[in-house]
Specification:
The chain is of the alpha/beta class. The chain has three domains: about 5-10 and about 75-165 and about 310-325, Rossmann fold; about 20-65; about 170-305, Rossmann fold, CATH 3.40.50.1400. Helices cover about 50% and strands about 15% of the residues. It is built from eleven helices and eight strands. The strands form two sheets. Strands 2-1-3-4 form a four-stranded parallel β-sheet, sandwiched between helices. A four-stranded parallel β-sheet has the order 6-5-7-8, with helices on both faces. The radius of gyration is 20 Å and the shape is globular. The two termini are about 15 Å apart. It binds ligand L6N33NVT and fe (ii) ion (2 copies). The site of one fe (ii) ion has 3 residues, from α10. Catalyzes the ferrous insertion into protoporphyrin IX. Belongs to the ferrochelatase family.
Length: about 325
């Protein structure tokens, strides 16, 4: 049986190739979004076009080259696996076909492509599931804007429900804790578990973004589930960009400081990311490890994202089931 319900999985997006020009095109769209960098346009656009897009793409393309796979960007290939796995699992659990499409906030496949593909499959009711566990104006806020911008060009659009966040969902916390436990079982256990979240400018939080609050709640719940005492875990924030203060403690400074405090064996996980990407595979797994070992650390274990794991997909099924109540 086919339902008239569909799911639009949304992630950030990624360059189409690990080349300077493809990275420039991606960064131009991404960093032009006022949800991401909210400075007045007259102030930001000359910096973006005159400095950032001239110098950053070359450096960032090299970083992408270090993680690029045969199937392309990890963010893209794993997101496609999630789409297929969710579609299969939804039809098993709900007993009817629920089409799932992927749309990226920036780049391809676009949000419009996802909406049109679902509509072509007869979906009149759409659950939009941004794969950002913690809400931020810079991510989920941007998804909402992109969706509204597409709807603004359509004479009729589908009934729509948006999952705002799932930072404290039992299935999400349970899947993170199980992934850490599995890792400990296979590789042994460090002295401390670092939970490194993507950062945002501190000002966004001061002005009302609930992102930091939700990250700290995720971290506390995972620590509780793993029965960790205070000294056995900490939350920190990575991927600082620009001169402004971002959320602290910064991951890179933490990695340098820990060995001096007698912590030489750590495990590190990034619970703000649904899939492994540049920020986990390069910044955390490669660069972070170098920083920690250079600072005197002995053992640095990177724990991958939940990706297309069965418990992660089951958690998405649960989110969809909650949203479609009243629709079936
Ligand atoms: C400039 C400001 C940025 C904000 C605010 C920001 C928030 C934010 N981003 C993610 C998730 C991802 N970001 C990724 C890459 C990335 N992020 C920024 C900047 C901001 N992010 C840049 C400039 C880049 C590109 C790389 C670089 O130039 O350093 C990615 C990886 C994409 C990939 O292709 O693998 C993800 C995912 C979150 C969750 C978030 C706020 C909560
Ligand atoms: Fe980012
Ligand atoms: Fe980064």
């Amino acid at each position: 049986m086919t339902s008239n319900i569909g799911v639009l999985l949304v992630n950030l997006g990624t360059p189409e190739a690990p080349t300077e020009s493809a990275v420039r095109a991606f960064l131009k769209q991404f960093l032009s979004d006022p949800r991401v960098v909210d400075l007045p346009r007259w102030q930001w656009l000359p910096i973006l076009n005159g400095i950032i897009l001239r110098f950053r793409p070359k450096k960032v393309a090299k970083a992408y080259q270090s993680i690029w796979q045969e199937q392309g960007s990890p963010l893209m290939s794993i997101s496609l696996q999630q789409r297929d796995a969710l579609e299969t699992r939804l039809s098993e659990v709900m007993g009817m076909d629920v089409p799932v499409e992927l749309g990226m906030t920036y780049g391809k496949p676009s949000m419009r492509h996802g909406i049109d593909a679902l509509t072509a499959k007869g979906c009149e009711r759409i659950v939009v599931l941004p794969l950002f566990p913690q809400f931020s104006c810079s991510t989920t806020g941007a998804v909402f804007d992109a969706l509204a911008a597409e709807f603004a060009t359509m004479r009729t659009f589908p009934h729509t429900r948006l999952v705002r966040d799932y930072h404290n969902h039992d299935g999400y916390i349970g899947a993170l804790a199980s992934s850490v436990e599995r890792h400990w079982h296979e590789h042994g256990r460090g002295q401390k578990l670092l939970m490194s979240f993507h950062g945002v400018p501190k000002r966004y939080v001061d002005e009302g973004d609930i992102y930091q609050h939700q990250c700290l709640e995720t971290a506390r719940l995972v620590a509780e589930k793993l029965q960790l005492s205070q000294g056995q875990w900490m939350a920190c924030f990575q991927s600082r960009f620009g001169k402004e203060e971002w959320l602290t403690p910064y991951t890179d400074e933490t990695l340098e400081a820990l060995p001096k405090q007698g912590v030489s064996k750590i495990d590190i996980i990034s619970p703000a990311f649904s899939v492994d990407c540049l920020e986990t595979l390069e910044e955390i797994a490669i660069e972070g490890k170098e920083e920690f070992l250079e600072a005197g650390g002995e053992s640095y274990q990177f724990i991958p994202c939940l990706n297309a794991g069965a418990d992660h997909i089951d958690m998405m099924v649960d989110l969809v089931k909650t949203e479609v109540q009243g629709w079936q």
